[in-house]
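dumping this here before i forget
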Amino acid sequence: MNPAMTLDREIAPLVAEMTAWRRHFHQHPELGFEEVETAAFVAERLRSWGIETHIGVGGTGVVGVIKGDRSGPAIGLRADMDALPIEEQGRAAYRSTRPGLMHACGHDGHTAMLLGAAQVLAGRRDFAGTVNLIFQPAEEGLGGAQAMIDAGLFERFPCNAVFALHNAPPLPLGTAAVHVGPACAGAARFQIEVRGRGGHAAMPHLTASPVSAAAGLVALIEAIPARKIVASGMAVITVASINGGGAFNVVPDGVTLTGTARAFDAPTMQALEAELRRRCAGIDLAHDVTCDVTFDILFPPTVNNAGEAAIAAAALGEMLGADSVIRDMPPVTGSEDFAYMLERLPGAYVLLGTRTAGDTPMLHSPDYDFEDRLLPVGASFFLKMVDLKLGAGCKTA
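structure:
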């Protein structure tokens, strides 16, 4: 951690409490749209600080509204609350108490950061405008951001811009990355049902093996980005599972493949889907099988507004030092449903480094644990955005 880092001085006294909140969330993880206890914890804290609090927004979402002492525009600050269906392998004293569930992506930390910023803002209110604190459910693939939007999030709580952050284990602690334009890939999920003609494995000439067809199809699919996508359109397509059959001497009638496609713009995603379907049609002819393809878009790309990204980068530069803010990092091939909010409003999604000496487990790993030293950094970033966007009197140490 950079000793010259400049953080909001009102956050420092809250670090121990923020850490306790974060570890409480870690011990009590909840899946998307099931964050009943987490949402109740958040709402209770917001109300205790005199913040106007709305629950049940888009399912289990919570929104806190803080009005400054002068009129002005409004901004949204968003944190995600859900955990993942992963069995935790870590042995921390505060490890998950719920078998098969854990906070393996740091949403426990994001929620604690925004709560810390909320507590400071509740007592400060020296800004011109409104801060909407958006505690979002179901970021992990279930569309919580869209659910909140569909429930009237931005009609009920209008915002001129919206901001979010995520911890980033690949980046050193005390650094950050801000993208101009695409920050994260859009994501699609595909499923291919390969139907053939089963039979005895000792007589393959009497079958039309979907297993053989599937084996050839994997290589054809995963070669698509290198051969069919222009260099300017980065893309990823991966087959993640193959299921079918159950006996060593039986050719099954069918095999199912599933996987994901990632791209940073809609035309590239459309090209991936079209080529996937074309190659499946080729396998149909080559192996005398049929392929039924389902291709579902899960998230659009997460695209930062250039102006808001510049403001976020300036905020982080003031906090961490200009040399600690990366502005030319390639976009992340993971996806983020904050993308839906950025489709509606200008804003920015930033990455805060967490890597320390030694190996740092990656996100979604059963060994992952949020780095608590990042809590005051994230909370200070939220406060700094209020300062820069709404003219708050940001107090730094």
